[in-house]
Inverse folding.
């Protein structure tokens, strides 16, 4: 039994490794070699916490297990702990024995950033120059850092409900030597790639605020009721997702589907583009939209990658379990 | 983070501790202080394995977590490992952080034995003398050992599809200084308590093979399609269970309910008897039947108990996670 504590993840895991793991598992999902189990998510009636399990099995990578944990909204204020707490458990698919336990907090941030990054690699125009961010919280920094590696961006623009947080984006842009500009939503028309990463329950971005040829990655909607963009944008765009069932029920596509504007069949798997069974972007005028809902297999993939890195570097704690 | 490996459980866990933990959590379930999450159970398409998660939260005992694992039918033959493999993970309900990892194989056997034992304590006649076993496999020994502690039994009788396995029961009877007799099913009429613990998909025990006043614990049926007793026995008996929703869908009561012989309302929680909100046995002629389906909270309860014992004895492995 191998253990990789949360504190070791930052030094071990790279954005490259997270990208490779997520890209690979999206491909395995689309080719039917990997699948996610039903998600368990419970309001446990204690500390206002949401707790649950996201599991899956990747027959290609032989990765089996789950992420367990959830959201404890009082952690930070009461205890100085982060509110999202999760742990990944990997099992040996040949025997059913527990194989590894890995801190899941930073990994969750990295795998979410990797997902929009994979969508940019496969769906954004090659000549994309301006990246627009909607949302400027803690997770937005992860998304932007990973995204900047995918194209030769020349400028970052950003909008946030609370403008004082935009300094988060400015900081990441500066790391990459790029200028940053705070914009209003109409000015998002200048963006070639847009990432939305908010916890909004109302559409923020209108369909007419997105220019032809743009790739939009909606990363914030993971629950019934949440929404980041105008459902009309999903009509105008070619829509891709990590998992179709989640996209149309708890993802950004839930609204356009519920309103009858698009059908389930209009939502394609990003993995199919990776596998070249779906052409993805076919013109420079096309709007592509990635609905990133977050699946357990992403967590398992990055956890398996970090276990390999930890073993390689002699950092994994071995317990005779 | 505390770790209690499988190899330590046998020396740490007692039948008394398992009994106390299971009785307490059944009581908490019946009073609405503890609940089980939806069960995830997947045929993963690898090694013919069934894998999944049984989770729950006990607000009274502050026990949160899950048992993960399943059934790997080729383990024994291919690798000399037992086919049922499981691990229990406990979480801190105040913070969402992983708190303990406990080997779940022996604990599963002990908590299943404790469940029929709790049902005997609360539902069998005080003057029960003869205990009848249907099934004589590995788990039957656990059930019998725990059951013998609940009444002043004077004799063990047993039936098994493969009679050569009855020596398992004879061995446990001998440990307790009791005579054992192999019987046919008609002779089960001599039993005051009957435990069925098989993996049968057809009724074994007929309703007319059970005498008035008997307590029957059906412990083998935990899946759609499995069945140990004639549905008419559930009509004649007062039926109790660990969890009503499981009893009527995957437990022994599934058949009587599906055939319209009894209704959901005819199945009571054993915990209500423990809490004295249900009178349980009210006459010496009444047949009582406990449908033990197995819930995640049982696993969490015995795992939490064993962690306490391991800490007390300085055996728990502490990992800075």
């Amino acid at each position: 039994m191998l253990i990789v504590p949360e504190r070791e993840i930052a030094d071990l895991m790279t954005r490259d490794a997270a990208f490779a793991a997520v890209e690979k598992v999206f491909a395995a999902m689309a080719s039917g070699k990997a699948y996610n189990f039903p998600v368990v998510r419970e309001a446990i009636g204690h500390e206002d916490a949401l707790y649950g399990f996201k599991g899956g099995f990747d027959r290609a990578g032989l990765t089996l297990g789950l992420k367990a944990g959830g959201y404890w909204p009082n952690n930070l204020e009461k205890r100085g702990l982060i509110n999202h707490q999760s742990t990944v458990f990997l099992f040996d698919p040949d025997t059913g024995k527990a194989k590894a336990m890995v801190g899941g907090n930073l990994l969750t941030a990295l795998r979410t950033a990797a997902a929009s990054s994979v969508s940019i690699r496969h769906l954004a125009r090659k000549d994309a120059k301006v990246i627009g961010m909607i949302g400027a919280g803690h997770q937005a920094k992860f998304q932007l850092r990973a995204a900047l590696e995918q194209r030769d961006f020349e400028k970052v623009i950003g909008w946030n409900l609370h403008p004082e947080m935009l300094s988060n984006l400015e900081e990441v842009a500066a790391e990459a030597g790029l200028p940053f500009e705070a914009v209003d939503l109409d000015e998002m028309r200048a963006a070639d790639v847009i990432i939305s990463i908010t916890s909004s329950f109302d559409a923020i971005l209108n369909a007419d605020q997105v220019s032809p040829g743009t790739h939009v990655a909606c990363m914030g909607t993971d629950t019934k009721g949440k929404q980041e963009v105008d459902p009309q944008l999903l009509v105008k765009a070619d829509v891709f997702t990590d998992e179709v069932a989640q996209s149309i029920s708890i993802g950004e596509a839930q609204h356009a589907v519920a309103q009858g504007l698009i059908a389930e069949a209009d939502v394609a798997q990003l993995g199919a583009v990776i596998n070249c069974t779906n052409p993805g972007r076919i013109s420079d005028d096309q709007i592509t939209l990635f609905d990133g809902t977050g699946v357990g297999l992403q967590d398992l993939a990055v956890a398996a990658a970090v276990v390999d890195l930890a073993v390689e570097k002699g950092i994994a704690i071995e317990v005779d379990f």
Notes: Chain A has a mean pLDDT of 97. DSSP finds eleven helices and 18 strands in chain A. The first helix of chain A runs from residue 6 to 12. The radius of gyration of chain A is 19 Å.
